[in-house]
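Give me structure tokens for this 117-residue protein.
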Amino acid sequence: MFLKELQIVYPELYDTLKSTLNKREQQALQFYQDGKGKGIFNQINEKFILLQDDLLLREITNVKYLIYNQVSIQQALYDYYHLKKIQLFKPDKMALVDDSKIGPIIDHVVEKFNRSL
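Here you go.
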């Protein structure tokens, strides 16, 4: 709904946003393809990964979902991170992942999420 309204009211901003989102998608696809090519990631269709990310992140950042499932946004994001790690990385490559770096990122996202409420 936001994108439709943006397109009608501010078509130039909509075009800029759409272009930026497309660029982000292409970069993410390339990232997943590179990981598969290097033998680090499992052989999963990268377009499905992006679709799954989009749908899952929208749902776990929905306040109704969090309340209904009695989970904090912080816990949901940590669970999402672990899901992605297990899903993407081949078992013998898991040791390459430095889990200590995700904490500050999740804390930052949680802070922004809480400010938006």
